[in-house]
Design brief:
The chain is α/β, with parallel strands linked by helices and about 240 residues long. About 40% of the residues lie in helices and about 15% in strands. It is built from 8 helices and 6 strands, in the order ααααββββαβαβαα. It has helices spanning about 1-10, 20-30, 45-60, 60-75, 145-150, 165-175, 195-205, 220-240, and strands spanning about 85-95, 105, 110-120, 125-130, 155-160, 180. Helix 1 packs across helix 2 (about 20-30) and helix 4 (about 60-75) packs parallel to helix 8 (about 220-240).
């Protein structure tokens, strides 16, 4: 991953901190879930690591890398690099005591933020956004506008039952996609595996393995999005090198 990041954002000085050390420090921070200032002594200073992370987030390096790895993974699986199917879902998580936007999710009974994910048929993240938790699910789709523009090939969006509002269908039509809402049958009770819905749920389960993502720890929404994007890149690289 360090080599890929360096290609997208070459260091401006030969004496710059090696990207490999920075990537390793960010990965440790997200895996353990500690504070930036708690980085062990074997890593570069925390302010250097955080500075590089913010630089990559603001320049869109991590988002570009995430999309490139998704295309590469699709080619390896025998699929077209440009997906035609998108599965969208949200996840509400609590916030720790940091400044920044947040809200109360009445359905989940928590104060925090809401993550909006768009994945392909294999579960690899195509776009991600973070909004305050008090935003209704059917109003979170505009947060994916910038990410959807990077995937003009998408033609079908599969959504949860909470996206039944007419404005959700309008959003899909605006972006050239058909909208398919998947929900339980009236006679079904308990846990039921829904068509294609399990794919995005599995992706959310992958994210839960990273302690730094169990709670929202960033003060800025773009940094919170960048944290998920960084983990998505590592998961895609792991799948490329360990297909089993």
């Amino acid at each position: 991953m360090a080599r890929l990041v360096q290609r997208l954002d070459p260091p401006g000085s030969p004496s710059a901190t090696p990207a490999r050390q920075v990537v390793a420090a960010i990965a440790w921070h997200l895996r353990v879930g500690s504070a930036w200032r708690a980085l062990p002594s074997g890593f570069p200073p925390w302010c250097t690591v955080y500075g590089w992370f913010r630089r990559w987030v603001e320049k869109g390096v991590l988002a570009i890398l995430m999309r490139a790895l998704a295309r590469r993974q699709r080619r390896r699986g025998g699929r077209r690099p440009q997906p035609r199917l998108a599965i969208i879902d949200t996840q509400s998580v609590k916030c720790i005591g940091v400044r920044g936007p947040r809200g109360y999710d009445g359905a989940k009974k928590l104060v925090g933020r809401k993550r909006v994910l768009m994945v392909d048929a294999q579960g690899f993240i195509l776009a991600v956004a973070v909004v305050p938790a008090d935003v209704q699910d059917c109003d979170t789709l505009p947060a994916l506008d910038a990410g959807k523009e990077q995937w003009p090939s998408l033609r079908l969006a599969i959504l949860d039952g909470v996206f039944r509002a007419h404005r959700c269908e309008e959003w899909c039509t605006l972006h050239g996609m058909r909208c398919e809402v998947v929900q339980k049958e009236p006679d079904q009770t308990g846990f039921v595996v829904l068509k294609r819905r399990w794919v995005v749920e599995r992706t959310l389960g992958w994210l839960s393995h990273w302690s730094g993502l169990l709670r929202e720890r960033a003060g800025r929404l773009d940094v919170a999005t960048g944290r998920i994007t960084f983990v998505a890149c590592l998961m895609a690289l792991s799948a490329l090198h360990n297909p089993a």
